[in-house]
Design a protein that fits this description.
Layout lengths: L2 H19 L12 H13 L1 H4 L8 H11 L4 H10 L12 H18 L12 H18 L6 E6 L6 E5 L4 E6 L1 H8 L8 E3 L2 H8 L6
Parallel strand pairs: 1-3
Antiparallel strand pairs: 1-2, 3-4
Helix pairs in contact: 1-5, 1-6, 2-4, 2-5, 7-8
Length: 213
C-alpha cells in the first residue's frame, strides 16, 4: 500500500476541514480547538526540540509554551503549514517517513475535527487503507491496552475481519467495530461506533481506563 499517498490525502482533507470549521471549532482532543490542533501538528513536524514533550512528560511544559506561541500565528498561515507539510530538514520530510510516521496521525486528527462537530457520522474509507490501519493496530494493540485492568479482544467487522487479543486477562471484554473505529477507540476517542460486550463489571472497568500511547 502507498501509505504516503493516504497520509497526504488525509492531511489535505484535514486542512480543508480546518478552514471550513474555523479556528474556534471544538475537537475530540480535550480542551483543544482546531487552532490548537493545527499548532500541535506544526510543532510536531517542525520543532523537534519541543515535540519531544508530546511523549516525555518532563518536557511537556516546554512543549506547551512553544505550542502556545505557535498558536499565535494567524489561522490561515497555520493551516497552510499543516497543508504543505514538514519543513525540509524535518525528520518527517525524509522519503517514506510521511506514510510511516504520519498516516495514523492524520487519520486520527482528521476524525478529531470531523467528530468534534455535532452532526458527524462514521466515514467509509478505502479497503486498502482500512487493511493498513488494522495491520498497524494489531501490532500496537498490547501497547495501547497495557494499562487496562481487564482483558481486551478486538474484533474487526469490516473488510477481511479478524481479531486480536490486545490484553490477556480475566475477565475479558470484546470490542467490535470497523478498523477505523477500533483504531480511534484505541487512541482513547469516545465518539466512535464500537460495541463493547462482556461482564458488566468488566465493561465498567474498561470504560474507566486510560487508553492510548
Amino acid at each position: 500500500m502507498d501509505s504516503g499517498r493516504y497520509a497526504h490525502d488525509e492531511r489535505q482533507r484535514l486542512a480543508e476541514l480546518m478552514l471550513e470549521t474555523g479556528p474556534d471549532a471544538p475537537t475530540l482532543c480535550e480542551g483543544w480547538t482546531t487552532k490548537d490542533l493545527a499548532a500541535h501538528i506544526v510543532v510536531r513536524e517542525g520543532r523537534p526540540d519541543a515535540a519531544v514533550g508530546i511523549v516525555v512528560p518532563l518536557m511537556s511544559g516546554w512543549t506547551d509554551r512553544v505550542q502556545n506561541a505557535t498558536a499565535s500565528i494567524s489561522y490561515p498561515e497555520l493551516v497552510r503549514k499543516v497543508r504543505t507539510g514538514p519543513p525540509t530538514l524535518s525528520f518527517f520530510a525524509i522519503p517514506g517517513m510521511d506514510g510511516l510516521g504520519n498516516l495514523i496521525e492524520f487519520v486520527v486528527h482528521h476524525e478529531d475535527v470531523r467528530r468534534g462537530q455535532p452532526d458527524w457520522s462514521e466515514r467509509e474509507i478505502p479497503t486498502e487503507l482500512a487493511d493498513e490501519l488494522w495491520g498497524r493496530l494489531r501490532r500496537m494493540a498490547r501497547l495501547f491496552y497495557r494499562r487496562v485492568p481487564v482483558g481486551v479482544t478486538l474484533v474487526r467487522t469490516d473488510g477481511r475481519g479478524g481479531q486480536v487479543v490486545a490484553r490477556k486477562a480475566d475477565p475479558m471484554v470484546t470490542l467490535r467495530g470497523s478498523a477505523l473505529e477500533l483504531m480511534l477507540r484505541s487512541y482513547g476517542r469516545r465518539a466512535v461506533h464500537v460495541e463493547v460486550t462482556g461482564d458488566p463489571d468488566a465493561i465498567e472497568q474498561f470504560e474507566g481506563a486510560d487508553l492510548g500511547i
